[in-house]
Amino acid sequence: MTKKWSSRLTFFAFVVLMVGLGSNDSLRGIFSTIFQEHFSLTTTQLGLIVTASYIGNLVFLLVGGNLSTRFSKKRVLQVLILIWMAALALFAFTSNYTVLLIGMALALGSSTLLNTTMNLITPLLFATAPGFFVNFLFFTQEIGTSGSQYILGSHADGFAFWQHTNLVLLILGAVAFVLLLFCNVPEEAAAPADAPAQKGGYDWRIIVPYVLVFGFYFIAEHGVMNWMVDGLGLPQASAAKYLSVFFGGMMIGRLCLSPLVDKLGALKSLAAFGGVSCVLYLIGSLGGAVTMPVWAISGLSFSILYPTLVMSIRLYFPAQQVSGAAGTILSIASLADILFNVGFGKLVDMTGYAVSIRVLPLSALAFFIVFILFTKFCKPTQKLK
């Protein structure tokens, strides 16, 4: 098989996998009521399902990111797919709350690391337009997420449907695994013989700013689903409308705006779209229910931020450190999600929603400020190609 066709087949395997991962990530929310009824769960026990997912993300990103620097990318992908499929098999063939928690940690942890690994490999497949293909890949993930919410949200009627859904995802995982058997997944280029020796560990002058950038970004984006609409006290129908516009914009933006990432460059794209996102987010959320339409359309400019941010890590670390650095950055930054969701509820009890909800637009502003300062004082040392 020629290199060109191998790259195309590898990317097709990624697309199949991304659709499955996007669907998988949305199932926790779609089936939460069914879990509660089937297992007779308390609210605390239901919350442990989310906690298990976060723990899985932390462990896989921190440990898996470093292990992926020691083994071939193809082997790492295959092992992660098998772990993800094993979790899906647990969901499909068992009916036990403890097993469900274990499966959530394995499924969401492996899903997040697969997502990150494919993001880092894609620029190696298409060096001439890495920004387009990375964002297109995440567009297909949004198809899986949005499609599953639309289709399953209206048909999920019992625990048996949950099991059948996971069987379908298991088949998608098997298809992606088989396709990868015939692919030559590219590896990072070896360091030139005359390159200076790399000191042990990562440059924390780069790690820390990136952690802050991702941490504030996670709070701003993920807080949308969990807190934004509740905090504004909107009717359910209006809330669903604004959320659909926001996340629909993210899906469309990843398809339509992705060519601009290659034309402008990763960092200039992040500065431009990050600035627009911040302005729309601030105006839309601080004005309350009246300006919510402005906030909703900010999803369009938000769309390219996360995929391009992950891809931009390549610009600051030697090829041999990229996977490990990405895992370290994302695992530490994901703590922001956990701490925010734990602390936000207490903040609401103390100050009320009207005051507390301002944390979200302020986090969007902090994300943009830290990113601009970081790119001003820390110049890239590597290339995407």
Order of helices and strands: HHHHHHHHHHHHHHHH
Rg (C-alpha, Å): 20 Å
Question: Helical amount among residues, as a percent range?
Answer: over 70%
The DSSP helix count reads 16
First-residue to last-residue Cα separation: 22 Å
How much of the polypeptide forms β-strand, as a percent range?
under 5%
Q: Which term fits the overall shape?
A: globular
Helix/sheet category:
mainly alpha
Largest sheet: none
Taking all residues together, what is the mean pLDDT? 88
In terms of per-residue confidence, which ranges show pLDDT below 50 for 5 or more consecutive residues? none
How many strand units? 0
Descriptive report:
The protein has 16 helices and no strands. α6 runs antiparallel to α10 and α9 packs parallel to α12. 80% of the residues lie in helices and 0% in strands. With 385 residues, the protein is mainly α. The chain has helices at 3-30, 32-39, 43-67, 73-93, 97-125, 130-153, 159-181, 204-232, 236-256, 258-264, 266-286, 292-302, 305-312, 322-351, 353-356, 359-377.
